[in-house]
Amino acid sequence: MELTEEFAWNGRTVRWGRRGTGPSVVFCHGTPWSSGLWEPYAEALAAEFTVYLWDMPGYGVSSKVADHSVALDVQGRLFADLLGHWELDRPHVVAHDYGGAVALRAHLLHGASYRSLALVDVVALAPWGSDYFRLVREHADAFAAVPPAVHDGALRAYIEGASHVGLAGSDMEKLVAPWRGAEGQPAFYRQIAQADQAYTDEIEPLYPSIDLPVLVAWGTEDTWIPVDRAHRLAGLIPGARLELIDGAGHLIQLDAPVALAATLHRWLSEGGVGVPPGLE
After folding, report:
1. Is 209 among the domain residues?
2. Residue 278 pLDDT > 90, yes or no?
């Protein structure tokens, strides 16, 4: 599913693609990922849904301009405007990692309306941001200037830590490819340097006001965002459904693809359309 379409927004170029027929489902990726992580799921659902994939500016095949902010406040505003560009009133939204904060900010601060929201191992609650994030924030220019071979080794080690079961060589190549070269390497460190917990601190008090069906799905072995966050998040959102997937780390799409696909299909075809558990 190639991202052949473009959306121009405040000097940025967002690459996106659409396929299928039926109710609309929009996938939001996280960091340091791209829409490619959701592509197999979108392809499988396209027989029953109209699926949308997009890369945030600074990621994947969207624009990576050095002086453009890629912080969460920007991405949240952009996502709300992108839904307007697509003329989608109430799509289902499926979000992972950083994409969760993007979807939540778009909804809570910028008026984006959803038919349902599936939050999969998302950035949403304090504390988040590792020692590595803080180190990069303090020395982003130095990291961006390291020799490509050094960058490649560090990048692979970083990404490997997101998986509980280990990554196949082909999967690793797809994940590191957008972050190579004269454009990709500095973009990788730039998006880490601009990560700031303040953007989720701002909306965390608003979670109890969310009034739509919400699924919180999480890998039990996620070391990047431990599973206690899933319990806390589900407890804050009225009627949220919590589903834990055993044996999966933060890269739950690759660690437990069958279990996650079944969970999302069940949610979109039943739970996401109906009333959240506990609110019947």
Report:
1. yes
2. no
